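Hi R.,

Here's the chain you asked about this morning:
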Amino acid sequence: MKIWVDDGFCRGHGMCLTLCPEVFTLTDDGYAEAITSDIPPEFEAATREAIECCPEQAIKER
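And here is the predicted structure, written out as tokens:
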């Protein structure tokens, strides 16, 4: 699984970081970014939940 955060959509709600801190972090400006684009299998379920729960639909799967 590969993902990316579209910084044009992210508004910094932090839902992804709450659901999967192993994959997401916040920039100094408070917006989400993926720590890695290649998601380890053990974090795929939490990453998919973050994708579904993102209020701005900013997390994209490649």
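One quick note: DSSP finds two helices and four strands in the chain.

Cheers,
M.
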